[in-house]
């Protein structure tokens, strides 16, 4: 466990590795997704067609039948709500369930299989709609707003709210946009066609860090200002498979492709100009790792 952390959950190849300071410890459990609550007091995981809560002592406080495979879940910053995306026959749905397992309700009936992201005040949740646009569901008004950032590199593939502000980062197929106000155009940065963004997250100082895979390796890039200028970048020879920041936005954890079926997970320093992206001491090495790696770090 990284110093100062409450918990860490990693999903790779459909299996879960999880440890918390409260005593919850899991290795190799088959799951479709996993998410830790604030301070890692609990976890929720997708198992079959259920959303299952986990607690220390091998306890399962509640199990909710979802009617489909849960592909992404996000716990609200206040710890009271969980937004999740579930696969149904007609497509993917965005739903909301309370932290104690009930009630459960539908928010949006047609979305993409992107992990939702909560606004800092826990009163709105962002997602990607069925047309590839970033959107936000406001719990107070029970309504959604959508905006089209496809000019910033294509359809949206991931969304990430800032930790302390209403700013929303929207990762696209070949770029990134940041929406700070609904009545103003989004800031936009596009990448070359050979670059594939993996995910974005926010530092505590308001800068965005973007993980990017390239033809000959990968990079972590710090972007700042209203025009998303590159403040610094670190480059490495191996592809990034997963990426997360601490809730305070002070440290970066990445999963890199060590070989075709092996992924290393560890902490890297904040990208500085021209530095090398390396994991000198991996926290976890996963063998038989396949596809992207999901990291929940509290």
Explain what this protein looks like in three dimensions:
0% of the residues lie in helices and 55% in strands. By secondary structure, the chain is an all-beta fold. The strands form seven sheets. It has a five-stranded mixed sheet, with no helix packed on it. A hairpin with a 2-residue loop joins strand 1 and strand 2. The chain starts with 6 loop residues before the first strand and ends with a strand. The mean pLDDT is 91.
Distance between the termini: 10 Å
Helix-strand sequence = EEEEEEEEEEEEEEEEEEEEEEEEEEEEE
| Structural class by sheet pairing and helices | mainly beta
Q: Helicity range of the residues?
A: under 10%
Largest sheet: 5 strands, mixed
Uncertain residue segments: none
Number of strands: 29
What is the beta-strand fraction? over 45%
What does the radius of gyration come to? 18 Å
What is the average of the pLDDT values?
91
Silhouette: globular
Multimerization status? single chain
Instruction: Please give the order of strands in the largest beta sheet.
Output: 20-21-22-23-27
Count of alpha/pi helices? 0
Provide key terms for this protein.
5-stranded mixed β-sheet; mainly beta; 4-stranded antiparallel β-sheet; 298 residues; 0% helix
Topology record:
Blueprint: E1 7-12, E2 15-20, E3 25-30, E4 34-36, E5 43-47, E6 50-54, E7 63-65, E8 70-75, E9 81-88, E10 91-98, E11 104-111, E12 117-118, E13 124-128, E14 134-138, E15 143-147, E16 156-161, E17 168-172, E18 175-179, E19 187-190, E20 196-202, E21 208-214, E22 217-224, E23 229-236, E24 240-245, E25 252-259, E26 262-268, E27 275-276, E28 284-287, E29 293-297
Parallel strand pairs: 23-27
Antiparallel strand pairs: 1-2, 1-29, 2-3, 4-5, 5-6, 6-7, 8-9, 9-10, 10-11, 12-13, 13-14, 14-15, 16-17, 17-18, 18-19, 20-21, 21-22, 22-23, 24-25, 25-26, 26-28
């Amino acid at each position: 466990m990284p110093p100062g952390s409450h918990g860490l959950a990693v999903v790779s190849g459909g299996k879960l590795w999880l440890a918390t300071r409260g005593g919850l410890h899991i290795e190799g459990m088959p799951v479709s997704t996993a998410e830790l609550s604030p301070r890692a007091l609990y976890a929720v995981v997708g198992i079959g067609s259920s959303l299952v809560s986990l607690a220390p002592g091998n306890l399962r406080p509640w199990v909710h039948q979802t009617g489909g495979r849960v592909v992404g879940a996000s716990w609200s910053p206040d710890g009271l709500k969980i937004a999740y995306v579930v696969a149904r026959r007609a497509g993917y749905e965005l739903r909301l369930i309370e932290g104690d397992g009930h009630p459960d309700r539908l928010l949006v009936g047609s979305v993409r299989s992107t992990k939702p992201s909560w606004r800092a005040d826990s009163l709105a949740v962002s997602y990607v709609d069925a047309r590839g646009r970033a959107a936000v569901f406001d719990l107070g008004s029970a309504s959604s707003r959508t905006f089209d950032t496809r000019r910033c590199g294509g359809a949206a593939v991931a969304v990430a709210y800032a930790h302390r502000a209403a700013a929303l980062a929207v990762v696209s197929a070949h770029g990134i946009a940041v929406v700070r106000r609904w009545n103003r155009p989004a800031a936009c940065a596009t990448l070359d066609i050979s670059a594939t963004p993996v995910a974005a997250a926010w530092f505590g100082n308001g800068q965005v860090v973007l993980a990017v895979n390239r033809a000959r390796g990968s990079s972590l890039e710090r972007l700042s200002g209203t025009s998303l200028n590159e403040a610094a970048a670190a480059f490495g020879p191996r592809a990034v498979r997963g990426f997360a920041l601490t809730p305070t936005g002070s440290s970066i954890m990445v999963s890199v492709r060590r070989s075709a079926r092996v992924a290393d997970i560890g902490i890297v320093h904040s990208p500085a100009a021209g530095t090398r992206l390396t994991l000198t001491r991996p926290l976890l090495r996963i063998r038989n790792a396949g596809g992207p790696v999901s990291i929940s770090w509290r």
